[in-house]
Every structure is written in C-alpha cells, then in structure tokens.
Amino acid sequence: MISYILKRVIATLPVMLMVAIVVFAILRLTPGDPAAILAGDDASGEQLERIRQMMGLDQPILTQLYVWVRQLLTGDLGVSLLSNTPVIQMIGARVGPTLSLALSTIIFTVLVAVPMGVIAARRPGGWLDRTVMTFSVLGFSIPTFVVGYLLIYWLALKLGWFPVQGYAPLAKGVWPYAQRLILPTLALSGIYIALVARMTRSSVMDVMGEDFIRTARAKGATEWSVLLRHALRNAAVPIVTVIGIGIASLITGVVVTESVFNLPGLGRLVVEAVLARDYPVIQGLILLFSFTYILINLLVDVLYTAFDPRIRY
Amino acid sequence: MSTSPADRNILSTPSSDEPRSAKPSFARRLLRSARSLPVLVAFVVLALVVFLAIFAPWLGTTDPIAIDPGSRFASSSAVHWFGSDAFGRDVYSRLLHGARVSLIVGLGATFASVLLGLVIGVFAGYFPRVDAVVMRVMDGVMAIPSILLAIALVSLTGATLVTVLVAIIVPEIPRVVRLVRSVILNVRSEAYVEAAILLGTPMWRMLTRHMVPNTVAPLIVQGTFIFASAILTEATLSFLGAGLPSEIPSWGNMMADGRTYFQLYPGLVLYPGIVLALTLLSSNIIGDVLRDLLDPKMAKRT
Questions:
Q1: Is the distance from CB of A215 to CB of A129 less than 8 angstroms?
Q2: pTM of model > 0.80
Q3: Which domains can be identified in chain B, with CATH numbers?
Q4: A173 touches chain B (CB under 8 A)
Q5: Quick check: A282 and B151 CB within 8 A?
Q6: ipTM for the predicted complex
Q7: Which residues of A touch B269 (CB under 8 A)?
Q8: Looking at the structure, do residues A281 and A211 belong to the same domain, yes or no?
C-alpha cells in the first residue's frame, strides 16, 4: 500500500508541472508584449523595462520557464505590480476568511447531504426521494450568487436575523464570527449539497442490491441498521471521492460568495486583482487554488486506500 | 438495482426500462417524458426564453441602454414593467436583451467547444502518440478551476464578447475531449472497426464514417450541459466585473450594476438572478432527459 501511495504522489507531480506550464503559457501566448499587458495602459518605458527584467523576457522561452518553475519551487509567487508586496504574503494575509468559509461549508455539506442521500435511497421513487432529488436539481442550477442575494434579502433584510455583509475574525468573539459565516455557508453549500446528496443516494442504492444486505436483513437487522451500518459504510468511497472532486466547484463558489458577502478572503483578492489588472497576483492565486485542488484529491485517494480494507494495490 | 426506474433521474419517466423489442421512436419517448410536470415546465420556460430573445425588439421594449435620468429607480409601472435601474434604463427591456446575450454566449460556446473538443478528441483517441501529449495538457487545464482560468484569460486580453467566449470555451474543451476520446477508444476495439481496417478503409473515411457518428449522442447530451454552464460562467464573470463590457445588457452585468443599490432596490439584482436561475434549471432538466433517452449508459453512472 505504501508503494501505491508513493506512486499516487508521484503521479500528481506531472499534473502540477502541467498546471504551472499552462499558467505560464497563458501570458506568453496572449497576443502582444507580455510586459505591456502586465504594466497596463499607462505604464512608463521605465516600468516596462523593469517588468521585462523581472520576468526575464529577454531570455529564450525555455530559460524563462525554467527560471519560473524554480522560483515556484522555492515558494516565490512573484511580486504584486500594484503594491509591490510578495504575492505569498498577500495570500497569507487573506487566507483566514477563505479557510473558515471552506471548512464550514464542507462540514455543513457532509452533515446535511449524507443523511439526505441515505433517506432518499431508503425508498427510491418515494416522495422523500423525489423531494431530495428535486432539491438537488435546484441546488445544482441556481447560481451561488443568486442564492446569496436571495438569502440576504430574506434572512438579513426582511427578517433581520443576520448582518447583511462583512466578516469578523475569530479573535473578535465566537458569535460575531459565526453569525457572519452562516449566510455565506448556506449560499455556498447549495451546489455542494446537491452533488454529495446525489452521489450518496446512488452509491447507497447500488450497495443495497448486494448479497450482504440480504444477509443482514435475513438475520433480522432493522432497516435503519441495514442502511447505516451496512449500506452507508460500504458506499463511502464514491461519496468521499465526490467530496474531493467537488472542491473545484467549491473554489469557484468561494470567489463568488466572498464577493457577494464582502468577505476579505482570497476570492475577493482574485476579483480585486482582476479589476486592478494585477496579473502576478491572479497567476499566484490560480496556482494556489489549482494545487490545493490537486492535493486534496490526492489526500482523498490516499485516505480511502488507507481506510478501506477492500482496496489493495 | 438498475432495473428500478428511480435509479435514473426522477424527472424522467421510466420509458427506457421497457423491453427492447418494443422500443418506441425517439420523438415518442421525448413526448412521453414531457408528461412529467417539471420536464414540461422546463421545455416551456426554455422555449419562452428563446422566443423573448428572438423577438426582444418587438415586445414593447425600449432601447436597453438608453439612459433616462428623469426615471432613475422607477418602480414597476405601465411604462417600466419591472422598474428602471440607476441610470433610468428600463429593466424589462434589459432582461429581454439579456436573454439574447445569454443565448448567443451559450450557443456560441457550446458549438465552438464541442467542435474543437471533437477534433482534438478524435485524433487523441485514434493516434496513441498524439494521445499521450494531448491528454497531459488536458489534465493540466482541467486541474485549474475553470472560473479562474477564464478570469485570467479575460484579464489579460481585456473584456470583449470574443475574449469572454474564448475564456468560457477553453476550460470546457478538456471535458469534451475526454468524452470523445473515451468513445473512440471503445469503438476502436469493435469488430466492425477491425473489419473496416482489414478492408483497407482510408483513414479519413474511418474517422468520418465509423468514429465521429458514435460521438453524436453523447455530445448532444454534453452540449446541453455546456450550454447551461457557459451561460452561468458568463453571468459569473460579468457579475465579478471580469466579463462582458458593462454597456452590454447581460444578466450578469445587470446584477453587477444592481449590487450597490441592493438594500434599497433588491429587484435590480433579484429579477435578472431569478431569470438566470430559471434558464439554467430548465437547461439542466432537459439535459437530464436527453441523457436518459440518448445515453442510458451514462445515465446509469450518475
């Protein structure tokens, strides 16, 4: 198993390198002088020269790529054109709200979606199943920012239960922190709950046809015990996998949700960087998010190999 | 378990579970699935959106970008059915013209990404050497969250309709390539393909006669999902300020403009938001129906 994990870790390296090359290529393949694109419309000749120097644009393209990848390996994501601060520092300053939002969303999703999926799988085609599946189609189709504004309109403006927007760090107290995270979490969870509930339902239903379920029923186990102890446990692998794959839509959702709720996290940083055309920051954040996505899926893979005794490589 | 109708999507009828021998025509089965209420509503909504988009100029609309300082934030009335925005622009007219923008983006992105993905996928599936290189690049592109890739492309090239379309298409291509490639790899091992190879069928004929036709059904299904996803991506990009130029009346731009005034005039954000959500919902429901009808194998997997 160790060798499988090692193999799996090594297999992600080319993907990460490929991501780096794609991100590198985007700027170089865009028509026009990369330095001029980066500097913006009203850059002086001096600034252009400085950027050219910094990026090594006078070097051959493969040398540029080599230098760039080597910088990445040392954790150097470049320097913001706007504030001149290293991108890695800007990320450090903004990671708090994003991490809070992502974690609360994942926890909330698992707590809601897995029971939903199990309940739906209990009587396929029954009214509970239909309700859960309808909700799942809705959650899938209504954009996060529309859900966000509907929640603000209803729960914050009409009922006044929550503050409209904003963020309070944990240091300011647990309640202010939690109160400002609830609505963003609800908005962001929609699509994720839809995804996980659907997967839980179909993988529990698949397992329900197995022999050991019939055995469990035959020995007189209650229906709930069959569902939870026998079916759900054996259906866990696809569910955990979809939680990993869903991280991609979670990342998109984070960018949008932070904008809707004015949370000063990494998603807002992306949008601010786009509006200011601060390309090194955008580039750094793309790499960060993509690597996070790859690493989480690696972790998911490794975890279920470690926990599921049936999977042997 | 796959014999139970509920194993499939609940929104479609269990028509595909009937015995093979009495398989009704595609049109019959499509009609039958429209008997379920949500599917019927989805067809009606989407038809309505298409109708409104095509006939937008003749449906009592005014110029969607005409600024009228005298009627800023007008509430809904006989003149402004859905009120007007911060510049006095008529929200009803903007909603209808926004439908045009969404459909153009949705259809344009769908056709372009399906076509490009088909070409790349066929070659990757048919030529193992091309495959090794192409699929590594596709893996790299797919590992980048699509909205971020689109944001990067738009922020480098500046926002125009074409760059936004390109930014939406690029992240969609790898998904199409993977789908086409897997179909081609499956077909390649079929006996009739081996027979065709032994008969000395020329390569282009192999591709056009034996490979591409097999990809049509899954591509139609995938296409409806790309259509919805492209509309969503455009709206998201515009909403974030990284999308279409702000003078184009798209639903995302309307929401972006309305954000500042949301607490006072929630309709400016909610109307386009709800219309957008209904369009996406209908497209996804129809996508599910088509998947059940055209691609039973895929339906079983999800």
A1: no
A2: yes
A3: 31-55+93-299 (1.10.3720.10)
A4: no
A5: yes
A6: 0.83
A7: 149
A8: yes
